[in-house]
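Please check both lines for our workbook:

___
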Amino acid sequence: MALHIAVQDDHDYLNEKQMQQVKDLLQFAADQLKVGNAELSLTFVDNPTIHKINLEYRGKDYPTDVISFALEEITEEEVPIIGEDVPRVLGDIIVSVPKAVSQAEEYGHSFEREIGFLIVHGFLHLLGYDHMEKADEQEMFALQEDILNKFGLTRS
């Protein structure tokens, strides 16, 4: 099954090749994790935009690199929608491209590797992975590295 990805890049930060690589990476990650029929949105923004989102939704007054909003988190009052043809709606991933550029320089790897890392990180959050506890962090980061390495986005 395919992962349906709605991408928004109003500033045209990514070129056509990079955009295709991002979509291929997300599909690869979905296949690796056996996600099946699902959809998500991916938005590329600037630092002021992600700063505003980070402050409004997380109470953090600074620009961050990636924020995810998972839509499968169901509260007690909600009922899940289940059906054969209904895709899982995973949620939204928002990435600050200027932050990715500076982090790629800081870590000494390619912009594509950094964008890939952030997108896979956000994707794993949509699937319920977290890094609040040490054991969860180790599991999530090992899975990120595994997906990125198998896809060919290594640190070198």
Summary: The CA atoms of residues 121 and 153 lie 14 Å apart. DSSP finds five helices and four strands in the chain. The longest strand covers residues 88-96.
